[in-house]
Amino acid sequence: MKAVIGGEDEDGVGLRVIDNDDVSHGIHVAFNGEIKYHEQDGYSDYPSERTQAENEHVRQARRFAKWHVYREQGYETMPRHENPDCLVAAMIALSALSEDAIADRFGDLRSQLESHYNGSSVQLPFEDADPDDVLIYRKDLTLSPDPLAVEPPLADQYAALVTAIQDEAEAVLTDSDDIEQQLLELFNYEDRLEAELPSFDLETVSEMHYLHTDGKSEQTKGAKSSLDREADARIELPPIDLDSFSLYRLLLVANLSSQIRDRYLMMGEEPPEAFQHQGFGTYRGTVKQEIHEIYDRYYLFTESVNTWSSTPF
Question: One short Pfam family name for this protein (predicted)?
Answer without folding.
Answer: DUF7958
